[in-house]
Structures
1.
Amino acid sequence: MSQDSPASPPPAATPLTRAVLEIDEYVGGLGWDQPARLFALVDTGRLQEEEPSLARRLGLDSEQPAGSLTPIEQEEIPAGNPLDEFLATIAWPGSVAGCALTVERLMLPAGAEASVPEGLDEAALNKWVAKHPERQEVRMTVAVLRDGTRESALRLREKDSAVEVLTGAGLVPGLAEALATTFAE
């Protein structure tokens, strides 16, 4: 697909942004209502050098830009396990430059916070949000590198298009922080 195609994501400025948009496009192709997905981010040049057969299977040619990152999907995240507890069990080997996570959630506009009933437990709050007339379904792809660099992509279900994806380092700070702790030593 050429970059001029309306379905292609816009060119990204950094390798991490490109990796986040690549993951968003991949998961977007699977449709909505997907489980959370975890990805290791590895330096493409290092992968080609150390694992040439894997690089070929992944379709990586030798003309990758310097500093490129290749996302490698990990095993499925166990269902029913709280995400923060799952992330606390992860330790990445040194060959992993970063990681990314894609999750779908319901969001409310900022003004809706004032109308949340008091005293709701997590299950009741989730039900309340699911019934709220202004809720929006969003897919979040959040990535961090070992050095602390962060990037995120947000895609609304109602604007499900690669050209409607919002990117930025600080869009989902809590999730980025949780991912960063997987590199804590």
2.
Amino acid sequence: MEKFVRLTAVAAPLPMANVDTDMVIPKDYLKVTDRTGLGRHLFAEMRYEANGAERADFVLNRPAWRKAEIIVALDNFGCGSSREHAAWALRDFGIRCVIAPSFADIFFNNCFKNGILPVALPKAQCLELMKDAEHGANATMTIDLETQEIVRPDGERIAFEIEPFRRERLLQGLDEIGATLARTDRIDGFEAALAERQPWRAEVLTPPQ
């Protein structure tokens, strides 16, 4: 998983509340198990006409935001079903950070598994950042995970909170499996010490030859 340390990028304004996972990636595209390739279907029902043509008025189809890596939205982003494909589609499109007043719990957790930083801020600050985002490529913003700050185009800094363990995982580019494997020495040491203190456990757990 790619590390997330400091991101300076275009932010796309999405002034909508209750953006559910079916809007992020419609159910028609849930048959795949590969995380790549879903970016072209991100927000498919809002991005495309029935004939497949792009809708010129949707933000990610407009020239200023085609390469956006940040989304600024409103309350309860990622609600609905628990599909991890929503995070896959965002990441495959190129989105590294979503800023909103609140997130659905499962979507929030899935973001960290896929190298996406979800930032929860008061609604008033989200609306300010949305105004910045409306300027597109002329007003990039910076997300600094090390300092836990968002730097607005005018230089103003907005602090955000994130659980320390989640922060460290993103900084190191580790998903849950990677974080476990990074502690292999400690796990092996614990198991060896346990086997020494309680040898009968090792006998029970050792498969027959």
3.
Amino acid sequence: MPDLITGEAFGRLFEGFEHTAWRLETRTLYTVDKEQEPFARHRRGQDPGTDWFQPWLDTMRRGIEQDKLIERVRIVPEVLTAYLEFELWLCQFNVHVDEDIRYLPQDQADKLGLPDYDY
């Protein structure tokens, strides 16, 4: 499996593209440093806030304001992990800035022969 691009290198991918950014997400957990505390708060039933998430949303908004398409598909198991529940909660903010996120059940992804790694 290829190395996962993270941090600033990942963010730059969404600043320099010209037309469409599309991503397939296959993991049930992503270990992103800035998400750790908000994720822990979410698991405790507390409001994780979104200040930490705002830079990402701003990047998405800028791209969409330039008529760029930003789309992703998340492959999810029948029973969501705690992290995927957190991502589902966050999705409302992504959608608010017009990022297009779709969910595909794991069994359907398997039938389609989709890979088990992100791209």
4.
Amino acid sequence: MMNRTKDAIVAAFGELLTERPLSKITVKDIVDRCEISRNTFYYHFEGIPSLLEQTVKYMTDQIIQAHSKFGSPMDCIAPFVHYCTDNKKAILHIYRSVQREVFLTYLDRTAMYVVSQYVETATSGLFVSAAQNEEKNLLIRYYKCTLVGALLDWLDAGMKYDLLAAAESICKLFAGSGKQAFLKCLEIEN
């Protein structure tokens, strides 16, 4: 849990990200917005890169905390899309910045969590051997990469197409394929 000053800095940074690109935001802009001193800012953060990392971590933690169980593939995709759409300008400013690696790291982390939780929910109560667990983890990584790839394509397009509609169509086209793959993994015995 962050303290109030840290929360205020992150909130001010988030507001500024909706107004302008990351490269145009300075520590002065943030301290002026928060009405704090530069020393106070530097007490909490080493600089804008560490503030960016904390902000992106906070964003991804919000998605994870709000969505702990996923009953369908669309349940995995919708939280990302809604959060990104609600924070479109800030997300695009981070994604298009030279520091996009921070965003990509947390995007990958969040996608892995979401897909893992979905698979764990879907397979709860089933006995999975060590060999089958390896195959299950392989499927989790595959679907995580698919989710990240879809999100990156959408971000590269400036979030201009309806990702939820596209995801619904894809889920209909591939309905049952994930279950089939998992059932095949349950058959594997080394």
